[in-house]
Amino acid sequence: MAGGIDHLYRYSGASTVKSAADGPCMQFATSGGAGEFPYFFQGSLRQPRQAARLLRVLANVVASRFHLPPAMLKRILATRDPVVTCGGGMLRFEAFSACCGVYARVDLSPDAYDGVVVGQGATNVDFNADFRAALAQIRDHERVGFSVGADEVALLRGADQWVERKVRLPLRWLKGFVEVQTCQARMERRVALGKIETLRFLRSLPRSTDSRTVHHAVPTSGPGLRLTQRACPEGTEIRGLERLRILDELAPWADALELYTDPVSGATGWRLRFGPLDFHLVLSPETWRGFSGEGQALDDLASPEPTRLLSLARGALRWQAELRAEEFATDWSVPAAAVRQTLATLGTRGLVGFDLARAAYFHRELPFDLGLVEELHPRLRDARELVATDGVKLLRQNGDDREAEVRGDGVVHRVRLVGETERCTCPWHARHHGGRGPCKHILAVRIAFPTGDIDE
Hints:
This protein is an alpha+beta fold.
């Protein structure tokens, strides 16, 4: 599989900060969306300097590389445009680091702006060098107008100042968006720090550290957090600690810090709060592990689509700003687990993201074709081939307890699935124990012998 998908981005012009009679106006060049150049939002920022600072750090994340596989630099840097989503009163900017091991998001709540949400949608924005430089010059005393989708595009359709850029859409980002929401949906909050403790912890991070060193963030006897290399039950394991240094610039202004962890993969989530603005940073379990290769969404991709619930959930996206499994389970009189799988399925289709702060999914349709995601997972592709070629033999099944033999490379592997517990005799499972998603043999059994229709 090639390293990207051909996708033509059409920008009305470069992103700029323009001078206006009542102050600078921040305008993003957009690509895609519901219309050719849609208007999602128009207004002004109440804390322009802080918002600009968060967006500038987001751009720094995009430009950062914490791990670089050989011969991949040119391919990774082909496209680095963050995704902006508007809906439910929220404005969100999302991006990955160049190595895809760090996910970042800036959230602006309704209290962060004065303006009108013209529509709902998601698109790509152009963060060019001039625009990033302009962000650094914004001050709080200025009135900064803010728009996503420039007015001039709609009014000057057919004008001669169009910027067209044919790029290779990174498959790593495509898969990364699918994977990171799966990890976030499982995360549990471990620590919440106030302003002083947040600054103290971020300032205590070592200036340099070996990416292979394992650290543990441990709550102190007071309302603080400290680092140690000794494992303990109350600690949160962190690998690739140097990636947190990206937060240095934001530390003095943060009101609070929340730490989350995914008990399955070991990924960690960090939420910095700045009044009505949030900065989210999610770190992959290890520096060399990009979210694009994790495989955490494979179970959801392999599961039969719950057609009735999926239709209900898709319909809810048209009017519901946030989706929570427990609320919909009550409304629809179905098990919460069934709704969680349905929402996870929407995530694998690129229709929703996950907000740690609200513990809810939000509507976000990625502005590129996610129909290829399933094809981009070799394990899932191989599992479907095993099923299609009669490579799976069921030995016994009793409810959700299944045991089967699956054809391997010159050997037959034994697979047993009991509820959420998965076992396989193959080397992949022995090495990762599900920490990087299921092996192709487990997926093949799940596809060939599902436990039942969750719509019932």
